[in-house]
């Protein structure tokens, strides 16, 4: 038996499979054929002339070895079966139902779904890949009324006994309607079942005249591609790239690049025009090309597609149904929550602003209620939501009430404390801007001729009383001083921002002292404005309070810091560094890496849904007059600030260790587990992040070393090099000449590049995204915009601050409409969908790769992720770690790998999927 397996080159056929041809059937079909073939490994080891069993020949019918001369007989035909799994929609509209029944009828008269099976071998006579006959899916019409998530069909192929190993299948859909092809399994070949994980929409021939090509799960480097698959590999990549012309149809699968010239809508008016992002004037990453015609009033701006019409992304990138349902429910909720404050404001002219903190609390306890007559309001009539309107009538409170954000769930007043303000700098929703203060006072890098003196107004006397008796130099030398510096990012935009109605901002710097307990204490805040004249005072330093008045000024200063922080978090760290910067790598991967390429198989789960969520963001969130502009201080200049951040973006510093070292919060130390020593020992984001970073890096290294045994293989891998080159030279074209791009010449280079991409798509995005509602949902904790500056003693508004400081503070925060709109949006963005796939998980984990060694390694990676989750849980229960454990202190779970659906403030999905 062992010899038989070795001759066959694979494990024995699973005898339990219902689709295997029986021994009697094979005897009846006269399928036992000896084909001239000499496996090299057997010639060396046994010096025998042997014939491997081919196709569906069973072990018990196989003649193990034939001593003597070669035998030649004509190959004979036999049958193998395909099991085809189609994933059905759970909900269909009327048109889809009608077309489905029409397809069931026409399937009976020959308009089938047809498949052709291709071998990995070339036919010596035709010089083309060996192929089967065309086979059709059976029982499509009979199963048209089956109510199930998945429906299984079969098809039978006729192949020669010398067909070889199947490597590709083409699918032709002669129906009227597309269908989602999840997988195909071919059973009956000697090597056992051959799996084709497809996970793709197959369009009708009217939309896609050619045939769809799917490859088996066995990975091949380009140089190792079997001869029978080489042309199919090239054809599929050519199909995906398209020709760069024309407007894309929603059914297309074309991946291409374009600049961000679709954020504004100049046809609505000059106030809705926005500059193009991407190019020499305003550098930016590229996005997925849609090819829409230009706007009527600006040939350089692409025409808008406004909601609810869909924005183009390649068909397979669109949300699956459960994800769409989840996102639609959240989006629906957002629409309601955007609308309701407007309605409430229309009833009373006095409820635009929060009058007291109880007004904010009531959003969670009582919600925003509507009276039935208000449902006839003109705004509501414009919404295509009649069913939902009736639902509101039945139960208004349930739909219109916000969940209590986590930040106030354990301690209602935590947000007021300085230690919580410091804790959120390293364990909140934006823990990636804190830096070690390397020189005091800090110095600006902006041009002094344009923006005034580069020196800060921070002086030693501002901080001496707050650093435990140290001198400033001692505190610097002992790594006790840290800073969050938004001066240079905001100052160039402040004149324009502060000219907007209801927007007021400073460029802030905040200095923190690392206490002996390991917590961060804010000790000085510098607030800068542009100079209005040579002698004007443009900088102001606020220090911790000593009395009631200075306490309110301190709270306002912290609110302005949080507003700066919210903008940088959303526009630079979250959107730019994880969403926008990843898109070019994803587009290039689809265009240049075959689905057979092992690196594509590795990256595939980390690219899921990103193009779709980015397109939705361009349509609803980052667009001109969209949610981000409405809710964040920079208003119409939001995306220009994002583009300004891109000028300093460097891919080589986006990996976690490199980023921590760049910010000076860690130093290289080979004696430490991750090769780094954290200067803030209890830095939850960094310490948990390093666990996940190392797990990803070890998994990627194991994977890369499996397929590349030397550097020449990497340098000569034309698909791999084309992917990386296109990601840089086209996707990040405005940085293509930068010297900091990592080289791709060795296995270590590839491991580093892939680890960084997977880290950004999974853990980094999770750390920046899923805490948004838990932290930002209580607006005083992190106001996304401020409407008032802090008055000086000689300002007319100073008297208002003294007379009613709480009222002044609330008037400086966002309005009711702005606050509730932001709450609705970040609630949606913080929500895990039911079909979320978390790090360490994969669809069809046992067959996503045809490489058993890699499957084993992946299960090892999954086990390591589970171990990390337990370690994070232990850390959150350690009372010595005061930044994640204590009275009223939130545990740090944003990098805990798994989560339930919903808003949980934890969970690391594989990809940027929301």
From TrEMBL:
The name this protein goes by in its record: Lipoxygenase
Cross-referenced CDD domains: PLAT_LH2 (cd01751)
Pathway linked to the protein: Lipid metabolism; oxylipin biosynthesis
Record lineage: Eukaryota, Viridiplantae, Streptophyta, Embryophyta, Tracheophyta
A Gene Ontology biological process term: fatty acid biosynthetic process
Enzyme Commission identifier(s): 1.13.11.-
Sample GO molecular function, one term: oxidoreductase activity, acting on single donors with incorporation of molecular oxygen, incorporation of two atoms of oxygen
Function: Plant lipoxygenase may be involved in a number of diverse aspects of plant physiology including growth and development, pest resistance, and senescence or responses to wounding.
Location in the cell: Cytoplasm
Family: Belongs to the lipoxygenase family.
Cofactor or coenzyme needed: Fe cation
Domain PLAT residues, every copy: 94-216
Domain Lipoxygenase: start-end pairs: 219-914
One Gene Ontology cellular component annotation held by this UniProt entry: cytoplasm
Keywords in alphabetical order: Cytoplasm, Dioxygenase, Fatty acid biosynthesis, Fatty acid metabolism, Iron, Lipid biosynthesis, Lipid metabolism, Metal-binding, Oxidoreductase, Oxylipin biosynthesis
PROSITE patterns: LIPOXYGENASE_1, LIPOXYGENASE_2, LIPOXYGENASE_3, PLAT
InterPro entries noted in UniProt: LipOase, LipOase_C, LipOase_C_sf, LipOase_CS, LipOase_Fe_BS, LipOase_plant, Lipoxy_PLAT/LH2, Lipoxygenase_dom_3
Origin species: Tripterygium wilfordii (Thunder God vine)
